[in-house]
Write a structure and sequence with these properties.
Elements lengths: L5 H12 L4 H15 L10 E7 L4 E7 L7 H10 L15 H12 L4 H4 L1 H9 L5 H17 L4 H13 L7 H12 L6 H5 L4 E3 L2 E5 L2 E5 L7 H10 L4 H4 L4 H21 L10 H5 L1 H7 L16
Antiparallel strand pairs: 1-2, 2-3, 4-5
């Protein structure tokens, strides 16, 4: 288990010792990170996840990315004002961490929500922040829903998830509290936004690099720019330069700059924009871009292709 705060690492190990598999441990670690590393991540944020299924020998990307509000008034506000920074709640997408963790458990895991969330509840109960007990109440409501619901493990997990996102036929207290919070803070997220959320399961974006297949999530993240960077670096003798030598670092940074320029120019949500990844990864395009890397000089320009 590799994670941020020690408590999150311990959460993953605890689930493995309980008999859970890697997916169970990953979900437990993600939830715990929202406590131990709050600020770097939060229960209201997003989680891009790559998972390798050893039995099927396939990698899948799970899109734990919340969407913008559905309200036209919200979209009009963003178009006029842009996405705010700082602590302005208007920057918040639909919270996706909960659905991502439960989708991971349903598709790849073996345990229930109550089992994998226990380490996080321990962290919250021992915590001192004013939001700790409130999040604990939310998670325990979900555990309660799982316990009182009938059906398979997957159906019980879904019931807990539906209570969070306001899709339950009768108990939607969490979603109602969330909506009230967003309204009070001046945000745009509403019950219909929560109810419409789902975690997409996709094939990853991949490139082959020196005998390895490198996988990243799609262009709803910035991840594919690493694939473009590796394509550019294939034309350099990185090993011959020496690990972390001046030339090694220079070539890497210059390749990253070119890939990031394309990221800024072309990447977007692929459900709304036709992102030309095939062309960006193509041999011909890479061979046009690679000579832009001057080994004697650092570029100070953003140069999308």
């Amino acid at each position: 288990v590799a994670a941020g705060g020690a408590g999150a690492v311990a959460a993953g190990i605890e689930i493995l010792e309980l008999g859970g598999n890697a997916a169970d441990a990953a979900a437990a670690t993600i939830l715990a990170l929202n406590v131990t590393d709050h600020g770097a991540c939060s229960i209201g944020g997003e989680v891009p996840l790559l998972i390798f299924d050893a039995k099927k020998e396939e990698v899948k990307s799970l899109s734990g990315q919340g969407r913008a509000p559905l309200s036209q008034a919200a979209i009009d506000w963003y178009m006029e004002n842009g996405i705010p920074g700082g602590k302005d709640i208007k920057m918040a997408p639909v919270p996706s961490v909960v659905d991502l963790c439960i989708t991971t458990l349903q598709r790849y895991g073996t345990l229930g929500f109550g089992e994998i969330v226990e380490p996080t509840l321990g962290l919250l109960d021992a915590g001192k922040e004013e939001w700790h007990p409130r999040l604990a109440v939310t998670l325990r409501r979900m555990v309660e829903e799982e316990q009182i619901s009938s059906g398979s493990r997957e159906e019980k997990l879904q019931a807990a998830c539906d209570r969070f996102y306001g899709r339950h036929p009768s108990r939607n207290d969490i979603a109602e509290d969330l909506e009230a919070f967003y309204i009070r803070m001046g945000g745009f997220i509403r019950r219909e936004d929560l109810a419409a959320h789902s975690t997409r399961i996709e094939d990853p974006v991949t490139v082959d690099y020196r005998g390895y297949t490198v996988c990243k999530c799609g262009t709803w993240t910035q991840g594919p720019y690493l694939c473009q960077t590796l394509r550019l670096l294939e034309g350099f003798d990185m090993k011959g330069m020496g690990h972390l030598s001046a030339d090694y670092v220079h070539a890497s940074i210059e390749a990253l700059k070119l890939a990031m320029a394309d990221r800024d120019e072309y990447y977007a949500d692929p459900e709304f924009v036709d992102v030309p990844l095939k062309e960006l990864f193509a041999d011909a395009y890479t061979e046009i871009r690679r000579p832009l890397i001057d080994m004697q000089k650092a570029s100070l320009e953003a140069r999308p292709g």
